[in-house]
Design goal:
six-stranded mixed β-sheet; alpha+beta; Jelly Rolls
Length: 422
């Protein structure tokens, strides 16, 4: 699609979605307005749509629930984006989050599930919050084949036995104030020494109102609204404490967009997390956006049947939490394998693409075909040349992730309109 046609296409969408804003103010919250993404000549904008399976029950339930929250400001919707390094980086997730929330600024709920990634060395953090540590923590990820730490919904853990171990979380999204009033720390002490973590806010130390080392939850109800707080592990006598996640909430209704990502994670990585289902009860997602697959397809012996069955197991894990949960499967971006002169486009991207459509049909889900939108096999080289992909031709640059986030959001907004106003 030429640049002129692309601009015309999105202006048409903007006009289409804007009509209700001009004619009836009380209807404006029913529609997600599209955005004009960055221009990139190799993007196949005509493929920027959401395929919805013939059984659209779950997708319809979700869009109607989101529509009601946006329209009335009552009730809550929980959206989860889960995947590997593309999600851990946080840029794409945050772009989608901001695009959705700007349509309902009065229905912005808590920030949701986060993880203090950068408490460990060489572990990158999402862009919308900062983590400052007192000492380096040890790290365990669900990509490790063996380890002695139980993992939960976040698929990652950090731990320390240092008596000075603490970390500070600071939300830095300038567009929205999430207003945290409750922090649930997910974690557990070692078997030999009981450790009780605390939370420091405005120079005062608070201990959990409710906690259980069995359920691995430590709940702090805060006396004031905040975007910054410190967690102290309070380790002693050689005992360590393991952190597996943080849930940031408030009492406001509205939309919460969680993102969970682990560098290198594949489908079997999340299946290995023993406490995944129990922890996910806190998130209770109405919609899961799946971005798992780039690492499954990177190996030499990629098996589409194993890949599909792993995904079905993960779907079942979510359905244990919410039987009505809706699912959107993101196909892999085009990517390259190897380095230097031996680098070549990964043919498994086309196989993942086909499996995603089969999965959507099997579970009543949807597909956002990132592979086709990019231009298909070998297209990552063109994205890199245009400055939208990194030199490894697997990951995007910041503006690439923002572009992908905008494209996904436009397809999402269009699908919601099609479902609610056929």
């Amino acid at each position: 699609m030429t640049m002129l046609k692309k601009i015309s296409y999105y202006y048409f969408l903007l006009i289409l979605f804007a009509l209700p804003f001009l004619s009836a103010k009380h209807l404006s919250a029913q529609r997600l307005t599209p955005v004009i993404p960055d221009s990139l000549a190799v993007v196949h904008y005509e493929d920027d749509t959401l395929y919805i399976a013939s059984d659209s029950t779950f997708i319809s339930l979700f869009f109607n629930k989101l529509d009601n929250v946006m329209k009335t400001g009552e009730g809550s919707v929980s959206i989860l984006h889960i995947g590997g390094s593309h999600v851990q980086a946080g840029t794409m997730s945050n772009r989608i989050r901001q695009n959705i929330l700007r349509n309902c600024p009065d229905a912005v709920s808590g920030r949701g599930m986060i993880f203090p990634y950068s408490t460990a060395n060489k572990c990158n953090n999402p862009i919308d919050y900062r983590v400052r540590r007192t000492v380096p923590f040890e790290l365990v990820r669900n990509v490790y084949k063996s380890h002695d730490k139980r993992l939960g919904a976040c698929g990652i853990a950090v731990y320390s036995a240092d008596s000075n171990a603490a970390f500070t979380i600071r939300l830095i999204d300038s567009n929205f104030s999430y207003g945290t009033t409750r922090v649930t720390l997910l974690g557990y002490p070692c078997d030999t020494v009981e450790v009780l973590p605390s939370l420091v806010l405005d120079g005062k130390e608070y201990f959990p109102e409710d906690y259980s080392s069995v359920s691995r939850r430590y709940v702090f109800d805060l006396p004031v609204v905040t975007d910054t707080f410190t967690i102290k592990l309070n380790c002693h006598d050689g005992g360590d404490f393991t952190v597996t996640g943080l849930l940031l909430e408030n009492d406001k209704p509205g939309v919460t967009f969680h993102s969970i990502g682990v560098n290198g994670a594949a489908t079997d990585s999340y299946i290995r997390c023993a406490d995944f289902v129990e922890d996910m009860q806190l998130v209770n997602p109405d919609l899961v956006i799946f971005g798992i697959g780039i690492n499954d397809a990177s190996g030499p012996n990629f098996d589409t049947l194993v890949f599909k069955n792993n995904y079905l197991k993960i779907v079942e894990m979510f359905r244990q939490v919410n039987p009505d949960c809706a699912f959107i499967f993101l196909t892999n971006n085009d990517s390259y394998k190897g380095s230097g002169r031996r680098a070549h486009a990964n043919p498994n991207g086309k196989l993942v693409q086909k499996v995603c459509y089969r999965l959507a049909d099997a579970v009543g889900g949807a597909v956002w075909d990132q592979f086709a939108i990019m231009g298909g096999f070998g297209s990552m080289q063109k994205w890199r040349a245009a400055g939208y992909a990194q030199s490894d031709r697997v990951h995007f640059t910041a503006k690439g992730y923002n572009l992908v986030g905008d494209l996904f959001y436009n397809a999402f907004a269009d699908a919601m309109e099609r479902v609610l106003h056929p």
